[in-house]
Amino acid sequence: MNRIFVAALKEETPNLDFFYYTGVGKINATYNLTKIINRYKPREIINFGTAGAIDKNLNGIIECTKFYQRDMDVTKLMNLKIGQTPFDNINEIVNSENGYSCGSGDSFVTDQIPIKVDIVDMEAYALAKVCKLEKINFRCFKFISDNADNAASSDWIENCEKGAKLFKQKLKEITLL
Predict the structure, then answer these.
(1) Residues near 76 by Cβ (< 8 Å), separated by ≥ 6?
(2) Best CATH choice for the domain 3-173 from the list 3.40.50.1580, 3.20.20.110, 3.30.830.10, 3.40.640.10
(3) Main-chain dihedrals φ then ψ at residue 79, nearest 5 degrees
(4) Which pLDDT score, from 0 to 100, does residue 175 have?
(5) 158, HSE (Cβ side, Cα atoms, 13 Å)
(6) What are 114-160's pLDDT values in tens digits?
(7) Per-residue pLDDT tens for 51-61?
(8) Distances (CA, A) of 71 to 60, 74, 124
(9) Cα–Cα distance between 155 and 145 in angstroms, integer?
(10) Backbone angles phi, psi at 50, to 5 degrees
(11) Strand, coil or helix: what is 40?
């Protein structure tokens, strides 16, 4: 298989039956993507999912090309910035400067965060890092489902189906299928 499509949850991809699912959060994403890679040996991973917009001007589907770990915080222990992992030389993944930045973390964002990114999710950094380490091309498309504020949880539920429909159209535009 040359190309694999992954999403965290089936709820994010209604009526799109070609996806594999990683589960929610960085650990589930890492573990399940590694299993998928070991089984199918793809050359490219395409991630689709929902995301909260920190930049309130974003909407629809965007492509993310820069990935950060928004909840890695050892600032009180070491002289590192938020997002930097101690003793790890990969603290950001930049596939291209032409795209949006995504901060992944194991929390659903409903308030301000201490790192500058365009959007937030819960898996993209982990997926991007596994692909980087395994030398697999990684592309990431996110549907802006909410504004990472106090209405985020109700907005997310309502917007999953809208995002899946737009992603199907996006696939035709960029001729991935």
Answers:
(1) none
(2) 3.40.50.1580
(3) -85, 65
(4) 62
(5) 6
(6) 999 999 999 999 999 999 999 999 999 999 987 777 766 666 666 88
(7) 999 998 999 99
(8) 25, 10, 13
(9) 6
(10) -100, 160
(11) helix
If we measure between CA atoms, which residue out of 139, 141, 143 comes closest to residue 163?
Answer: 143
Q: H or E element: which one contains 28?
A: helix 26-40
pTM of the model: 0.92
What distance separates the 2 farthest-apart alpha carbons in the chain? 48
What pLDDT is recorded for position 111?
Answer: 87
Within 8 A by CB and 6+ apart from 106, the residues are 25, 26, 27, 71, 122
Task: Count CB-CB contacts under 10 A for residue 79.
Answer: 7
Look up residue 53 and give its two tokens: 């917009």
Q: Is 18 left (phi over 0), alpha (psi -120 to 50) or beta?
A: alpha
> pLDDT tens digit string along 61-73?
999 999 999 999 9
User: Partners of 100 in the beta sheet?
Assistant: 64
Amino acid residing at 176 = L
